[in-house]
Amino acid sequence: MRLILPSLLTLALANGQALSTKYDAEQSFRIEVQSAFTMEMVDFSMERDGEPMDTRGGGRRSSQAREIVMIDTVLDSKDGEPTHVRRAFEMISGTATSTFGENEMESESECPLSDVIIEIVLDDGDISTEVVEGDEPEDEALLEGHNLTLALDALLPEDEVEADDSWGLDGEALLRAMGLDVEKAYFPPPSRDEGEGRGERRGGGRRGMPGMRGGGESIERYVTNADWDAEATLESGTEEYNGLDCHVIRIEAEATGELPEREWGGRDRQDRSFRPLLPALRPENSFEFELEGKLYFSVEGGHPVHLELEGTVSTESMTERERGESVMVISRSQEGSFEYSVDITPVTPELEDGE
Q: What are phi and psi for residue 338, nearest 5 degrees?
């Protein structure tokens, strides 16, 4: 998942830095995650048989904000790696807003893992997860995919590195670092019935929006479907963050990709106004993604303490649909921005129990 560039493989490492997290039993981390993602339609057009069509209703914009707070406590470790971790979810919240013309819809994400404590155990190479406090989710899939280690470990080098050394990052490392590998556990998609009843309408017009099912969209689909060219670089010297002397790792990434066409759904099976009138002949959904940021690694603590990422997304899509002898062409251009931050603070079991 993390590949050291060939130039580093033959590097003399006498003065290198081993940037890896060492886990000890009874070690606890408070992890606070915040993210925001906005997409806006900048161009939209429709043609039928080569003739432009009226596209009333204005532009479309969606925004999403999420916050996660949890405490990881290492209950057991072996050779510096955790084998048994207790994870207490203090808060998992998400809001989304979607606008389409004069219509605006807001929704809130509800996570069954909120106020739940799970334990993750490594046994003979297999990882199992169980709820030890709180209500167990009805969907067992929400207990799958949880990792023992800190998500930011995915950005660290496997070998020792020196200042200005770089190592490659793949999409799996970025997905893990941004918590997107467990997004469906933290923010499970609503069922059709739930999705239709959770939106709050503002403005005039209909309550729902085609294909939105609760509003907003996730950055996960872009990261997953991207062909990444990403690199991490250890900067010279150290920098202070929150009173801690830290190594700084610069993250730079860019990607291109194509998205699968969205599944269209209506709020009512009898309501055909929310369905595409024509079957897709030639969908094209290309996008470009740029991402940059910094990871702070505590010199004294020997673990990541902060990640900040900013990114931009631009998309181009064109869909041809046919009905009888008529052909409709729909073209869209969107631009978006993404912000993501993580703060990791060591706490003691006494502080954790006393909160």
A: -140, 135
